[in-house]
Every structure is written in C-alpha cells, then in structure tokens.
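User:
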Amino acid sequence: MHVIGITGGVGAGKSEVLSYIREKYNCRIILADEVGHLVKMPGQSCYEQLVKLLGKEILLSDGNIDKKKMAEIIFQDTALLEQVNALIHPAVEQYILEEIKKEKERCVLDFFFVEAALLLESRLYEKMEAVWYIYAEEQVRRERLKAARGYSDEKIDSILASQKTEEEFKKHCDVVIYNNGMLEETKKQIDEKLGEYL
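Assistant: Predicted structure:
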C-alpha cells in the first residue's frame, strides 16, 4: 500500500482531484479537517481537554461542542488558539497514523491518501511515501473561491496571504499536479503518476 500526501492552497481543486481518485482507484482517503472534527466529539481524545480548557459554555444541549461558539472564543485569543491547536493537531496526526497502520495490516488497498492543508508542517509529512502539491494559478483559485464559496476579494487576499507560497509548496513536494481547469488534463497526470506504482 502506497501512502501519499495531498496538499495545496485554498481553491486549488484538491476535492476535485480526490473525487476522481476515489472513483477510479482501490484506495482510502482521509481528510485531516474531518478528523479534526472527529477528535472533538464526545468520547474522543480531545473532547474532555477542550471542555476543561474552554469551559462548559462551548457545549450544545446534546453535549457536542458548538463549533461556532468555540471559534468565536479562540479566534479572539491567540494564546488560547495555540493551546487548542496543541491539543487537536497531535490528536489528528495520531488518529491518521493509526488508520494507516490498520490499513497496512489489512493489506487490501493499493493507496492511502492523506489530504491536509498543513501537511508540510505536521509529523505526518515524514510518514508519506510521496507528497503531491495540487497547483492552480492564483486567478483560477480566486474565480473558484468566488463562484463556489461566495468569498470577497478581501477575504481571498487574507487567506492567500496566510498560506504558503507556490515556491514553498514546490520545494517540499515530490509531485506537482497542475489543475488549472482542464479536468481531463488533470486526470491524465494523476493516472500517469499512480500508474508508476501499479
């Protein structure tokens, strides 16, 4: 089983790439964002610690954490945000590493993909056999974010400013998949790369 990391800036079309891979290949795909929500659920590794750190007011009546309320609290306080990230990031990494281990033992998949915006900053980076950078030109990304998410230019500017540059991504990734809008072209690149493993 080949373990491949997928990363890239917002609006690069990572979901589109993964959707094609999911349909065509014998694989499992894990999204770090989804695991981030999972580890905050009651009974999961971060739940008690987060409630202890942020107080019971972050809970909904059913005992789940109110994501909106939690975001409001932590984004006003940098120190608190760092404490929360220090709980969640290692838990996400641990969960994903355990799932990779399980799938390796099961021995039924050809590929295991891990999609994470912050993959290059995490411990997971070292565990990947290869890391793919999904690339799209800035103009294409801006258009996608406006069309799909209704983002304003100001919001897009602030997101792009907070993310790694194209050069930084390329420096740390093994493969660049160009995804500027011609999906057939993108699929061809994916098939070529994954074909090398099979």
